[in-house]
Amino acid sequence: xxxxxxxxxxxxxxxxxxxxxVTVQLGHVxxxxxxxxxxxxxxxxxxxxxxxxxxxxxxxxxLGAVARGxxxxxxxxxxxxxxxxxxxxxxxxxxxDERTRALAAAHDPVELLERTAAEFAERVGAxxxxxxxxxxxxxxRLSDFLVTRCLELVVHGDDLAAATGREIPFDxxxxxxxxxxxxDALAARAPGGSVEVRxxxxxxxxxVEGPRHTRGTPPNVVETDPLTWxxxxxxxxxxxxxxxxxxxxxxxxRADIAGYLPVMS
Length: 265
Description:
The chain has 265 residues and is an alpha+beta fold.
């Protein structure tokens, strides 16, 4: 009888550490945006035909989703899980693009991000971590919603750095949270135990149907660094590019996981 793929257990995130990580990473992004010139806001990004101006508007919109959700009546219970969230963005791409462009056209990007950050701090500051917040694609506990904001700030902070050439630091906890969420999303998308994906020092997951490894060195191992993993998992780089650049090591006949990437786009 073939082995049955087990569902990955939901990972628990420390709410205090998540709040601190969002605050620190937001500070790094704000510092970078404040220093941009009008010419830099017009630079292209790796996100289709968005310029840096649209990218900053999108960051503001993503961060502002928390305050907008909290302004609505609290749903009685969560409607979505963290593992569902990364794959839920693709069907919304056209709507997100339209709203991002409208926001970028109507507001100064620096003022928009500063105002959004202030609203975020005011709304979230004293709120309970277990407060259920209206969100797309479904309501989340505030503590989980903030985990997704870590990811937004890290991923789009990296997009901003790539577009402008500015170095934007990564808060260690924000980087760890983003790495783990995307690794868990891979395990949820490709459940199984035949491949072990290692992203030291933050995450190890097993995935892909097939013979389950129980002891010793796994026969199929993928290993990479956190930033490369985040770029792979979000489609910022391809499996072939990362392997060719020796940013990924993959051993074993099942270790090519290109078909399961990206897990979020």
